[in-house]
Amino acid sequence: MLSNLLIKNYALIKQLEMSPDPGLNIITGETGAGKSIMLGAIGLLLGNRADVKSLYDPAEKCIIEGSFDLSGYDLAPNFEEENLDFAQECIVRREISVAGKSRAFINDTPVNLDTLKRISSQLLDIHSQHDSILLGSNEFQLQVVDTYAENYGLLHAYRKHFQAYREAAKAYDSLQKEAIQMRKAFDYDQFLYQELANADLRSDEQTQLEQELTILENAVEIREKLQLAYSYLDNPDSSILDYLKNTVTAISQASRLVPAYESLRERAQSCLIELRDLADEIDGVSSSVEIDEGRSQLVHERLDLIYQLQKKHHTTTVDELLKIQQELEKKVGTVLNLDEALLKAKKEAAKTEEVMLKSAANLSKERQKVLKTIESLIIERLIELGIPNASLSIKITEIQPTNDGIDSIAFLFSGNKGTPLQELRQVASGGEFSRLMMVIKYILADRRKLPTIIFDEIDTGVSGEIAKKMGKMMIKMSENHQIIAITHLHQIASSGKAHYFVYKDHSSAKTVSKIKKLSVDERVMEIAQMIGGHNPTESVINNAREMISKD
Known about the structure:
Number of helices: 18
Distance between the termini: 22 Å
Protein name: DNA repair protein RecN
InterPro entries: DNA_recomb/repair_RecN, P-loop_NTPase, RecF/RecN/SMC_N
Strand content: 15-25%
Oligomer: single chain
Function: May be involved in recombinational repair of damaged DNA.
Organism: Dyadobacter subterraneus
Family: Belongs to the RecN family.
């Protein structure tokens, strides 16, 4: 339950704090005094949109804080799902900075608005007078049935199965569309792949072939230059090697006389060995350079093929061509295996659909079980609330699967004898809507196990004895739930365990909305004024006192 509410710097509220009673709390006040402002502030705790224009003082931040006593309510799993620590005393806070930035906290842990909504929706429920319009919505009527049937687990399971089916069906549909496009391109892709595969490309062959072709095309000149180089090194008439041999012999003779020259002899000997190896290698390379027109033609043709493929595929290297070949092979392989992939995707979609439909059937079965019970409970309470000829039938129709199942729910209503049943939104009056919503909230209260329920003028369109009965229903609900009721009717106001009065204070430069808890005498006077105006007679005051004492 809401144990304490703090509102600072919001709209016309500079600072407001209240600690509601665990039972039935009544809030009254003149129109425009600030009751709706309070609800707007509480709405921020429920994750409603924040607006910097709501600041009472634009230079200070706004703080809305609700302290909740959760003892006796099994809400720990809800906190665990959001990775939040659970405590019997839960503090929910919302802040709006002067720049308009909004922040939310649960037990001082920062949370996003989605988390805030999921947690706070388990702590309190606000029903405003405008929400009665929801009652005409088939979606809301379906929620009523599910809430009464306590289908939370079944609905959660179905939605998981429905989502799995949608994803599988989407995957199958996408694969079908992709298959059409891939098959259109298959012949051309296969041709390109086969062309590259037949080329039997190797990663480093282009460089090797280009080097070989250079040698083949310049074989005569290359051989001449190599032979000339060899002749300089070694020829019968005069060569570097002969001179170097003589140099080694001369230094050897000198080193016999002067041993220190031995290092010079060794160096000369090394040069001779190196030049001998160089001459042999030049001679060998020269001998390997052949003038081969046939090989030259083959290399030309191979390089032309590589260049053509590179131009065709807008590449500059063989490695890029090989990568394209791999991609084409994958595409072609995918198309060749499409039938198998399509069959697998189709089976998966059919499998998830079967599971989803079975889950939907279980959910539908539980819904149908409670329809008659809901009908009888609503009619019974409506008769108590002054609609003696009320008739209600809940029609369930099977539809294509949606996120809520395969059922469409319609509440068919008649408030008058002999009048045919029609959909609620077509026949119910404002007063009937209020009573219907009150009855539905009443029969669903224990099913939802909400700690706190707030009614904002749910009594619109009713008065007299009916209002008194609505008050008694609220008293009954307050045995297991904290009820906060904003009302203009003295019959309901007199039913409360605690009574708060909202008013405007004009004593300062700027009007401020305030709230105070009324004492017994103040409460009697407030009820009396609700009955007889600002100057109630003594008999009206006594009547008010009697109403409070009876309740």
